[in-house]
Amino acid sequence: MNFETIERRNCIEPGFSYLTAATGTLMSLSLFSLIVLLGAIQALLLGITLLFSRAHSRLQQYALAFFMLILAYNGFETLNWSTNTNSIAFQFFTFVPIFGLGPCVYLYIYSFIYPQKPARIKWYFLPVWIMLALRVLLWTDVWLFLHGHGLRMHPMALDTWYGAFAEPLSVVYFWIFMVRTLLLFRRFTPANTHLPATEFTMARRWLTAFVWNMAVLGVMWLGTIVMPRFWPAVYYWQYYPIEIYLAFFIYWIAFAGYQQIKIVYIVQQKAAATTFIDSIPEADIQRCMTALEYAMEQDKLYLDPDLTLQSLAQKIQFNPKIISAVLNQRMQKGFNEFVNSCRTGEAQKRLLDPANKHLSISGIAFDCGFNSQATFQRAFKLHTGCTPKEFVQNHLQKQEN
């Protein structure tokens, strides 16, 4: 990059700056490039975390992991041209990984509804391998051209021809799977997932946001193809909005990532429990339910803030998997929901007990086994429909009337 180019970029991109490396290479780093760089790093870290984390569904795990890694590559590729770095490494895979984006979105949603992977899953990624093969052939021709051989057509012309059909084709392929995803998502219902109400609501909220963000991305992506056909002056600039959108979408997923990973695990645990409980004798199920009720109503184990599924299993002498299956399939509750419902019931009694007037709401919450005020407020409103303060006020109003 020469200084004339740098001055021109200073006029085009407000906030343009550059770092001088030891070799004297200048790398532009505008505000746009910084946003994309941070987004790409976030996507890379989350993708690697998902790739090597424990999961009940490999399909679900790998679909989201490779989805994030594709976005990470796209971010670094965008950084490559937006900073005029023009690294040859990104020229090898132009319009290759992006063909896997649509299939990853579809398979991620699919894994929430069906426990088994699709029969022809390998065919979904066939375009990725075809485009990779074309890039290999193109670079082989470049090598031959530099050595006095190769095709009659100049490699640059071949690359231009490749980009002319690969870019719109990648958008079309994404939308093929986006339409399939939207149709498939309609099947995400309590009947098809066998989830307790709380977990289903959490998963539904997350997947709805995810799917519609992908639909918005698809529309913006289509715009990058259509706009230059009608307004040639916007060429190159049409990519800025979608890249910024992608960066903030990645931030959102990254910051909410751990919670969403938990939802992934919850869904698979419920699916596994559906088949597991069928192998448990009915007498054992009834004994487990009785033991759970006794442990909460008589022993009040929920008052222990450190209570876990494993410690509860030791107390009532049942396998944790059996307890989890009974809670999920017979009582339609997750472990935390079950324990917090008992804690909420105890909190209601103590809030209305005149002997506890000297205690704050937070103090009662901690005495009932909750380990945070936020968890208590959320659980209390979920089970009663009002906040603890409103619950007390409503009781006082009834007494006055």
UniProtKB/TrEMBL annotation:
Regions that span the bilayer: 26-52, 88-109, 121-140, 160-185, 206-227, 239-258
Family annotation (PROSITE patterns): HTH_ARAC_FAMILY_2
InterPro entries, A to Z: Homeodomain-like_sf, HTH_AraC
Molecular functions (GO terms): DNA-binding transcription factor activity; sequence-specific DNA binding
Keywords recorded for this protein, A-Z: DNA-binding, Membrane, Transcription, Transcription regulation, Transmembrane, Transmembrane helix
SMART domains for the chain: HTH_ARAC
SUPFAM superfamilies, alphabetized: Homeodomain-like
Protein name listed in UniProt: AraC family transcriptional regulator
Lineage: Bacteria, Pseudomonadati, Bacteroidota, Chitinophagia, Chitinophagales
